[in-house]
Amino acid sequence: MAVTVEVKDLVEVHRYTRGLIGPSTEPEQLVKAGGRIRTVSPPGCWGPMITPHFVGGHEVSWPVAVDGAEVGDAIAITIERVDVRSLATSSGTMITKEAAFGSDPFVDKKCPGCATPWPQTRVEGTGEGAIRCVKCGAECSPFGFEEGYTIVFDDDRVVGVTVDAAVAHDFALRAREVAALPEASEQHPILIYEPHTIPGTLARLRSFIGNVGTIPSRDMPDSHNAGDFGSFLIGAGHKYAMTEQELAEHRTDGHLDCDAVRQGAVLIVPVKVGGGGIYIGDSHANQGDGELSLHTTDVTADVELKVDLLKGVELAGPVLLPVADDLPWIARPFTAEERERGRKLAERYDIRPSGPVGPVQFIGTGPTINEATDNAIERAARLLGIGQAQVRNRCTISGSVEIARLPGAIQLTMLVPMDALDRIGLGTLVREQYSLAE
Known about the structure:
By secondary structure, the protein is of the alpha+beta class. The protein has helices at about 45-50, 165-175, 175-180, 245-250, 335-350, 370-385, 390-400, 420-425, 425-435; strands at about 5-15, 20, 30-40, 65, 75-85, 90-95, 120-125, 130-135, 145-155, 160, 200-205, 210-215, 220, 265-270, 280-285, 300-310, 320, 355-365, 400-405, 410-415.
């Protein structure tokens, strides 16, 4: 990758990729291992979805190379800050407009009036007919709401409440300001649509990053860098189409919509191109497990990450060390009392107790939840050098499966023997994350 020769302790990113990530989005900056990346992350999903010249469903930061990162290494990303800037956002369940796209409404958008692919557009007024083709004037957004809402946040970003038609219209009139879009953002803010169902609904807020990681080794839409959304690329009728084998080879599963990828968590990601190419996008104000409506509260956020290079740690997909409170109860580190009880029980039956263990979440993605789970089990077995049956057994009695996003992004939590984590190069990170004794 051709990047500036200067290696920085802190890299600030103010450029975005218009929905594409991969080798063509070549990093322009280089951060040292142990350094930090800072950006203002524009909303993902709805804003980019209604911006027809974007080739993906997000607007992520321009990738940053990590000094010394080579294919076959891993990068540990510590989420240090995800602070919501937006005052409000709009979201909801979606419908698509067949005349405004080819095989995929997130990717190959076109104007229904003049058939221009990925047309430039302007905003005229508010509401779902506001996105207009610059060339012919036709309404050309490929998405509308089946049912949508607008939600406003309190000053401390602790709670939000959905608003009525009058407030939604006011926000639509000053949508870019209310969304707090960064200057370089090119998306049309979804607040323009002014949806206003379920007014007065209260929601707790806890921000996280929905799409973060390393760039794939082949160009693809940013929202499709996962096994579920990515499956829409298989056999597609546009230039970013892939085979099933190519998707598995090139994707890095950055788009997880996993609410545990929040401040304090460590996401360990594979390097599939030289330098890795760390990108950030699709921050959310909140989300319940599963993201049942497929979209949630997309926001502008101040994000800061610390990146550490793990040489020779070859991953098939991401590994997550969530904040301890986010671990399933059954897979949390054992207390001193629990360990002592276990020692006495093993002694009673003349069994040699196993050594210390630490919690790890293996990420799996696929077209369905079952396929995503199988993907995580296979990745865990391959990385640890054990059989899939052992992974299933351990995760049944001392682990868990959690749904990050329907249809197919999951977290497989497993209490892994520390000697195995040391062998694969993750032991030190797990000890530090959970304050485990040596």
